[in-house]
Structures are given as C-alpha cells and as structure tokens.
Amino acid sequence: MEDIQKRKVQHIQLAQQSGSQMDGSIFERYSLPYKALPEVDLDDVSTATSLLEKQLSQPLIIASMTGGEAYAKTINKHLAIAAQEMNVAIGVGSQRVALEVPSARESFSIVRKHAPDAVVFANLAGVQLNYGYDISHYEAVVDMIEADALYIHLNPLQEAIQPEGDTNFLGLREKLGDLISRLSVPVFVKEVGHGLDIETCKFKLDAGVSGLDIAGTGGTSWSWIESQRRGSDEFSDWFKSVGNSTESILQDLSMIEKNVSVVASGGIRNPVHGLMARSFGADYYSAARPFLHAALDSEKAVIDALVLWQQGLQIALFITGIQDWEQARFLELELST
C-alpha cells in the first residue's frame, strides 16, 4: 500500500473517533417554530428538489468522504448503492490518490457503477495547481467517475498541519479562475470543515462557479485529525475549532446577489439542522459522519439512515406548517432558551 493510501485509511479511522468532532453544532442555538395547528397534511408534504437537472428525493448530498484502497472501496460501494436506491446526490473523497496510484481508481469508479442515475461529484484539491496539476488532471477525475460536477476543495488549515501537506497557496486565485472557466462540467468550490469565508465566496462567484459548499465549523475537524497523525496535542487544542461557521457564511451570502447553488455542510447532524440551514439561504445540505458508520456496516444500513433523514425532514416541514422544500426558505427560526 502506498503512503497516500495509508493516509486515507488513517483519515477514516480517526474520523470515527469522538474527538474528531467540534464542540456542538451552531444550529443547536436555534429551534423550529412549532405549530400545533399546521394546516398541512403530512402525506402531502414533499421533500423533493432538483440538482443539476436531476430530481432528488430530498435536498441531501452525501458528503465527500474517502477513496483509495479496498477499505474505502467498500465504503463507497455501500454509499453509492444507497444513493441510487434513495435518489440522493453523492460526492467522493479526493481523487488525487487515484491519479498517483492507478490501482486506486476502482475505489472511486465503483460509485458510478452502483449509482448510474445519481448526481455524482468528483473531487480534487485546488492547491494541486501549484504542484504540477493542470486542467487535464481535473478533467481526468471527472471522467474517472463520469461525474455530473466537480468539487474543488480548499483546505489550507488541514494542509498546514498535515505532515505531508501542500502549503503553497500563492497565486491560486488566477489559476483557479482560469481552470473554472475552462472545465467541461459545473464546478462547486468547498472547504473541508473550517468554512469558506465571504471574500473567497465572492471571488468564486466572479470566477463563474456553479455552487458553493460552505463546509463550516461544527462538524468533523480535519485540523484535529491531522494533529493526531502529527502527534501534536498542542495543535489539536489550538486549531480544532478554528474557522467560519456555516450559519455566519450563509447569512453573509444571503446579502449578496447570486445565481448559484449553496450547500450547507459542517455541523449538519440531522435533517432538522438541514431545514434550519434552509432558513439561512441554503439550497441543499450535506453530511458525512452520520452516514460513515452506516457505510462501514452495509448498504442497507445507509439506506435505512437515508430513509430516516427523509422522514425526519418531512416531519420537520409538517410541524412548521410548510408544504415543501421551496417554501422552507421563508422559515423564521427561534433562538433556543
């Protein structure tokens, strides 16, 4: 097994530990405006929406997690089967490993094999443009899984703490702008858990992205994971919760005129949090850890989890008197007491 593959295994193992989670989701500050007389029939409440001209049963994207070796291949297979069965979108982990280790490609291509109709996101780091990558590499990861769109992830804090990190982010704005304008598929830019900032969001909007995935604080801390790999308790303490909250960036984005998809992730631990994110302007929500444990078990476990999330969203809409996901954008939350 190559070093980069070993790193992927370590990432999944550490992500399962409770210490990888930041302290509390920002959405726990709020509560839904419960209505005792909602004037809605639960059976008529719809969780459906669309993404990239494909219909989804619920506004959920199974977040980018892993890939690279047999361990990850099984996880991706279970997630893909469930995504196809439940008609939800799915992302894969960084595909750099598959470009450097050809034998790792099947751990990613298996997603499209088992989810032929799903919205599928390819994934590659933006910083690789400063390490010899060009448009051909980004098109290659799209082709590898016949992706509908490409996630370009930005992760400076993770890279800075990661022992093998790529930390030259100088000059990336111009390179990313050129790349985004030339790629053959829609581009979504995302962080990995420490949050996009509003300045970066504005730049990406000007560059012509199709979507922004906030990936804010409140969920899995990749700085903590890399600190554990590095053996630094100090870095774990200092940087674990550093970043921008999903809520704050959603609120900042709501003040900007835009015509892109906004994905709320980071601290989305259940569909109630997803509905709360909708009230701040999110079009979709995304989560990883709630489905990781299920994916380590079986595709049925993932399907069961997705069913639960869809039912949970339907109930949350119902008790707030909302008929469908589109109407949910007008929901006004209450501060928890």
UniProtKB/TrEMBL annotation:
Residues 175-327 form the FMN-dependent dehydrogenase domain. One of its GO terms (molecular function) is FMN binding. Its cofactor is NADPH; FMN; Mg(2+). Substrate binds at residues 7-8, 94-96, 158. Keywords: Cytoplasm, Flavoprotein, FMN, Isomerase, Isoprene biosynthesis, Magnesium, Metal-binding, NADP. Its EC number is 5.3.3.2. It comes from the Bacteria. The keyword Cytoplasm applies. It is an enzyme of class 5 (isomerase). It catalyses: isopentenyl diphosphate = dimethylallyl diphosphate. GO terms for biological process: isoprenoid biosynthetic process. FMN binds at residues 64-66, 94, 123, 190, 220, 267-269, 288-289. HAMAP family: Idi_2. Involved in the biosynthesis of isoprenoids. Catalyzes the 1,3-allylic rearrangement of the homoallylic substrate isopentenyl (IPP) to its allylic isomer, dimethylallyl diphosphate (DMAPP). Belongs to the IPP isomerase type 2 family. Homooctamer. Dimer of tetramers. This is Isopentenyl-diphosphate delta-isomerase. It comes from candidate division WWE3 bacterium. The gene is fni.
